[in-house]
User: What shape does this take?
Amino acid sequence: MQDERKESLNFIEQIIETDLANGKHSGRILTRFPPEPNGYLHIGHAKAIWINFELAKKYGGKTNLRFDDTNPTTEETEYVESIQKDIQWLGYQWQNEPLYAS
Assistant: This one.
């Protein structure tokens, strides 16, 4: 008898697998990373980046970088540029040009 082991999926992957099996969203996976450009990234952001980009990669999808720029009094171009550099330093590239919530 051959030992067949099925990969264990986390709850997000279970949802994606169900959606794909049901043909939801035409079988396309699109994730997003939506930082607010009012400061530098921290370790929690790195985790969110990893989750979103790796899930998209696993399922042949893409990830959008969409800045939540709805609070202009605290936002700076310096932070936008820093966030983009940090994402690339982590080894990821978003789809198309960065998007903005405003």
